[in-house]
Amino acid sequence: MSGVSIRLYWWQGLGIAIASAIVLYTNSSVAQITPDGTLPSNSNVKLEDNTRIISGGTTRGANLFHSFSEFSVPTGSQALFNNALDIENILTRITGSSVSNIDGSILTLGKANLFLMNPNGIIFGKNASLNIGGSFVATTANAIGFGNLGFFSASNPEAPSPLLTVNPNALLFNQIAAAPIQNSSTAPAGSTPGGRDAFGLRVRDGRSLLLVGGNVNMDGGRLNAFSGRVELGGLRSAGTVGLNGDGNNSRLSFPNNVERSNVFLSNGAQVNVVADNGGSIAVNARNLEMTGESSLRAAIGEGLGTVGSQVGDIEVHATGAINLNNSDIFNQVRPGANGQAGDISISTSSLRLEGGAQVSAGTFGAGKGGSLRIDAQDVQIIGRTPDSRFPSGLFAGADGNSTGDAGDITLRTNTLLVRDGAQVGNGTYGLGKGGSLRVDAQDVQIIGRSADDRFPSGLFASADGNSTGNAGDITLRTNTLLVRDGAQVNTATFGAGKGGSLTVDAQDVQIIGTSADGRFSSGLNVSTQRNSIGDAGDITLRTNTLLMRDGAQVLTVTNGAGKGGSLTVDAQDVQIIGRSADGRAASGLFASAGRNSTGDAGDFTVRTNTLLVRDGAGVGVESLGTGTAGNMTLNARSIRLNNGLLIATTRSPKVDPNREQATININSNDLIISRNSNIRTDARGANVIGGNININADVLAGFQNSDITANSTDFRGGNVRINTKGIFGIQFRDIASPNTSDITATGATRELSGNVQITTPDIDPTNGLIELPTNLVDVSQQISTACTPGSRQFQSSFVSTGRGGLPMSPTEPLQDTSTLSAWVRLRPKPATRAKTTISPQPTAVSNSTKVAAATTIVEATGWVVESNGNIELVAQAPNVTSESSRQTPASCPASR
């Protein structure tokens, strides 16, 4: 009897007809698949041309157990499990010491799930393929557990218990380091649900494909479980991996206290669950590395899905690092598809995206996009693809021709670095609403642009051209925020929808510099773009310290028909310093309506302790279009302008007579302007009234040609109202002088000049003064006779009263602070005493010594403070005791 060679695939239909098409050879030996004889009913292997027919085995309920000393499938050959159709699980163990090399096909009958367990390792070659009815689990675990009923072990190959009739629920790893699983399969695997060619290992649609080992390495290999589930992961040391599910769909649960193994995808490796519904991916690893255009893909495929279709989630959990280089993780609703995308969640110690790597949850179709959540200690997003076309980044969006809303991005990390043209973005290009972008971090750094300087690094939320949905908001909560070298944080609308708002809560914010060519400022921006009709969002910046320098900007602007957003800054200290290196960009805070815009500009409010604007930097509100300019309000304890500018510019007539525009309101304890600084409202155009300037300051000082002006070039000037307790160095003039500090409010003509009103408190210069008598004091009557100068006791002495002046009466003691402060510093006073003084304690001397002192001049070697508080030079320094402050009555030394 001659055999029939077969090559079967699941899409050709297996059924009972397979059994009749196979003629089994008895007593055939096959070196690649060898039963080990450890089962009550042993496995049998028969050869039919290039097909190894596996039969026999031990049955426990709906479970079929096979045991082999080795199991490999060479290139061009097949291994067919000839199981009964009522079998639900085929559990296969390899008890020898050889790795399983699979470069042919593995087939099963019916809908059975296949478990392939080899603790020595499993390698799927380029030609490996699967044609099984159920799910597939390849593992290098030592045993498969069945709860409390027992386990099926490869390292201790005992017969399976009669109780093992339920679905397996655990994979047990007992070895110190589990062997790896490798997959390089790119074999033809039929067609995808969307009609494209599929390649690699594949299970039936809706089923699971699990690779659970030590390290899992996919070098160019592919895994396919359309509408089903793919899981990759393993353990680095002994532990148990939970196996959950209903038999058709399985999922893993990993212990938290056991170190995990690594997962690698390289050279275009791909995990694909794209279909019309369902489809999920999970990776549990110590480290995950994806390179060379490798990808994890979940989606509703093009033209597929219904209103109720729902994609599953992609979950990636790594206890170590996740590194993606020019590789992708996608969960989407594809163009022409209908349904809702799933979410992407990533948890890791470190996440690094570079070379154009992307993680994206979005919708191109009628359904809602998924959300993206990142939890990490450190996140680095760097650069773009080598051709600079695509950025490295995190994205969630509703793209062109979509009707669904975009999902949200939530990023929680200690440190976030976005640089060299990389981006984090959320936007809508269609009818749906854009999602929000939220960052909670300790430190955020957004740096630079792409190598060709065309694309900024940044965080973005937008409603783009032809969209009608609103853009989402950006919220940053961080200790420190650094934006520099042309990088940006930006929300915008290009269409009919409203732009999102930008909120920053931080301890320290630094926005520094421009792009390398000076064309693009670093900044925080919200905007409406040309031809848009939606309003811009607002900027709210709350921080302890804000530093902007070298051309950096914070800007709300409308360039279309919509209204510009408001700008609010709450800070302890604000410093705005300098211009760009080429002088073209001013560092500054601005609320603006651009040229050719028709929308109104927003208002601008600063609340701070200290505000410093210097070296060409500026703060302003303006309208260069037909809409009205906003108003600026500065509330501060201290404001310093050092070659700085506060400006309110308008080119449009005031439409609402009850609403001021381009007005500057300043409330500060002190306002000091110097070195060509300016506070001005600048109005130009027919019927354009100059804005007003309202200043309330305890002290107002202007020096070095610094001006306050409310002028209108072509119509009526604005009003200047100043309420101050003191004004120095600056004064009102009809016309400003180029060499003085001036206050002006000029119009096109003298009759159209505005008003300048300066209010100071009424002061009577004679109030509180005492009229002095005309007769001078007779100093001869002010000499005390209690101690006669020239007497013996005052010889060889010197007394200084210090710089504090004489007391009202010579009998009154001088205060120690006045006496000593001018010429000697005492030791620090004790913390427990309110005041420290030096009290004289002269050493007692004999009469003979006193006589000698009266007749002999002795050089002074020290000094004492005597009871009157005077300092006396003495020949011998006494012992000095520091004690609480006290004053003794004045007296003279007794005569001998």
TrEMBL record:
Residues 36-147 form the Filamentous haemagglutinin FhaB/tRNA nuclease CdiA-like TPS domain. Residues 790-800 have a biased composition (Polar residues). This is Filamentous haemagglutinin FhaB/tRNA nuclease CdiA-like TPS domain-containing protein. Residues 790-817 are annotated as: Disordered. It comes from the Bacteria.
